[in-house]
Amino acid sequence: MKIKMKRFFKRSIFSILLLSLFVNSSCQKWSNKDTYDLVIYGGTSAGIAAAIQAKRMGKSVVLIEQTSRIGGLTTGGLGQTDIGNKEAIGGISREFYEGIKKYYNDPKNWKWQSPEEYIDGGQTKTEAGEASMWTFEPSAALSVFQELINKNEIDLDLNQKLDRKSGVVNKNGKISSIKMLSGKVYQGKMFIDATYEGDLMADAGISYAIGRESNQKYQETLNGVNTTLKDTTMTGYGSWNGTNHNFVDGVDPYIVKGDPASGLLPTINPNGPGKDGDGDLNEQAYCFRMCLTDHPDNRIPFTKPVNYNETDYELLFRNYEAGEEGFPWINSSMPNRKTDTNNRTGFSTDFIGQNYNYPEASYEERERIVEAHRQYQIGLMWTLAYHTRIPEHIRNEVSKWGMSKDEFERNDGWQKQLYIREARRMIGEYVMTQYNCEGLEKVTDVVGLAAYGMDSHNTQRYVNAEGFVKNEGNIEAKVKEPYPISYRSIIPKKEECTNLLVPICVSASHIAFGSIRMEPVFMVLGQSAAMAACLSIDEQVGVQQLDYSLLKEQLVEGQQRLSWQAIK
Asked: Which of 147, 176, 423, 563 fits a 20 to 30 Å CA distance from 316?
C-alpha cells in the first residue's frame, strides 16, 4: 500500500511538473504574440498621433519604436517648425503645439533664461492670442509626447526592430503579423508604417521609389537633375536652383589645385551631375539638426575628433578663400538659450552625397552611415570654431557655442536621430506631384493640407564646365497656398495590400515630397491614417474600399483642416 501510494504521488508530482512546464511554455509562446486592432511601426510624431487617435476611437493599439526614444525628429533637434502657413494644421498635430505652449507657460521649464529674454525668429506664434507655440527644445517635445502617451494609455514597445528578412507576413494582399529581431510577433487587423525609412512598407512588397524621378515621369519641371540657374516652375510662384546653398565661383575641386591628376577632393561625384531633367537614385542630403547652447553651465565645447582629417574640410577652406562671406549655418533660437541649427551655404552641416545607400541598407550599415555623418559634423563644428583657415569673425561666433548637456542620452551632447529628409516613397493609389503643390491639380479625398514650399536639399557635388566645384539638387519653390493631400497617397495599391497605411513615406514624386515632408504634416497624416484604419475595421473593408464620406465625417470631428478656402 505504501509502495503504491509513493508511486501515485511520484506520478502526480511528475504530471504536475509536466503540466506546469506546458502552461509556462504556452504562456511564454503566447506572450510572444500580441494581437491588436492596429499595429503601428515607428514611434515618430506620425506614429504617436496615429496611436492616440486609434485609442480615442476605442481600438486596441500598440506603438512600436526601433530606438529608446520616441518622437523622431520632433524630439531629435528639429525645434524650428517648418510648415509654411500654420493655419493649415489641425487635430492632434495642433494639440501637440498647444501642449508645447502649456509646457513653456510653466516657470519651472525656464532653467537657462527667462521667458522675457527669449526672442525667436518669428515662429513662436502665427496670430495674436494663439494657443500654440512652434519653437521648442527637444526635451520639451519629448515631455509633451510622453504626457500624451500616458494620458491615452498607449501600449509602447521600445527598442524593437523589424526583422527585415522574413518579418512581414503578407498573404493575398493582407498583412497578418510582423516579427521583430527580438522574436516578438505582433498580430493585427490593420497596420501603419510610421517610419522615415518605410521598412514595413517595403518588406510587405509595396511598390516604392528612391531618389529623383525624371521630369518626364510625371511631366514636372523641378524633379530631376538641374544644373541651371533659371526659374523653371510651371506657374511662376518662384523657384531657384544653384544660387542658394552653393559654392562661390572659383573653388578648385582637386587635391592639388589645378591638377586633375591628383584626384578630386572628398564628396565630389567623379561621374558628373548627369543630364538635366534626368532622374537618378541620389538622395537629398541628411544632417543632424544640432541643439546648441551658449550658456557656459550647459555647454559642451566643440572638440576635435580623434580621426580628424583636414582634407575632408578643404572645400570649406577654399570656399572662404574664394570669397564666401556668410555663416555656414542657420542658427535658430529655441528657448533656454538653445538652438535648432541647420545647413546653410555651399559647405555646411549637410553631408552631401554620403547617404545614397541609406534607404536600402541593413541596420548595421545604416548605423555606419549615421556615425559617419556624426563624425563629419563633429569635425566641421571644431573646424569652424578653431581652425585658423576659417575667417576670424566666423571662429569668434561659432566658438561661443557647443552641444547642450541636458538634451540627449549621449555624453557628448549629440543626438541619435539623423535628419532622414527622404528615403523610400510609396507608389500608391495616387501619386502627389508638382501639379498638386502648385494648385494645378486638386484632389477631393482630402486627409490633410500641406503648406511648405517644394524644398530639396542638394544631392551631389560635381565639377562644372569651368572646372570648379558646385552643388546640385537644391530646389526652393513656393506654393501659392496650402493644398490638399489625397487619401489615396497614404494607401498602397489594392492588389499589393489592403490593410496598410503609410503616413510618412507617402506616395509622391521627389519634389512633391519635398513640400509634404514636414513634421506637423506627418502628425496630421498619422492621425488621418489611424481614422481610416479604425473605420475600415468597423466597416470590415480594405482601406481602398473605405467610403470617403465616412472618413471625411471623422476627419471633421477630429478637427483636421481639409480646405484652405474654408479656413480663410
From this structure: 423
